[in-house]
Amino acid sequence: NMDMARHCYGRILSNLADKTSAAEDNLFVTAALKFSKSSTAGGTTSEVLEILKNAMSRATRLNNAHFTSHLEMHLAKTMWLRSQYGQALEHFKKGFGIAEELDDPKLLRSATNFRIVSLFWHGRFREVIETYEALVPEIERFPHGGFPLLAGLTVGRCYVHIGQVSHGLGMLDAIHAFCRDKGDKYLACHSEFTIGATMMDIRRLGQA
Asked: DSSP labels for the chain?
């Protein structure tokens, strides 16, 4: 249950708020990343943003590049959800740059999701699809795998933009239904907005 997970991580963060040993900093950053991941479905982005910024100062103190890269990408996601697209891209670039320097396959895989969003923002829709189809194994793709829903919405919108309208809209509708059935109100609303924006992109104003 995402609400329960968010509550548990929130309590851990609260308990560690005034503790600053290296071990406690390490635990705080780990919990902050988990809190951010579980908060897409609820909670306020301003709360997540404050926690991530606190975690970033601790990661800097720890001199932990892996933490810093992950936090930059979570900041990018949070900024994106707040419609602060310019700042989101700046955080993404920093996080992806660190991931490339570290040459960590797991970290680079996580960065793929944010790369997809970055390419979309630059209007490089075909590259989004090429990246998705080349780097995301069939088993991980929506709706059966664990590919993140936020990036999945971006991919669906890009399929529409490159002319695969039925496939793209089908993907968006499926994500919306999945979020609604799971009780993820935040992403259900976000997916509904994405569907409306996509309809406007292709001039189907009556369906937006």
From this structure: -HHHHHHHHHHHHHHHTT--SHHHHHHHHHHHHHHHHHGGGSS-HHHHHHHHHHHHHHHHHHT-HHHHHHHHHHHHHHHHHTT-HHHHHHHHHHHHHHHHHHT-HHHHHHHHHHHHHHHHHTT-HHHHHHHHHHHS-GGGSTTTS---HHHHHHHHHHHHHTT-HHHHHHHHHHHHHHHHHHT-HHHHHHHHHHHHHHHHHTT-GGG-
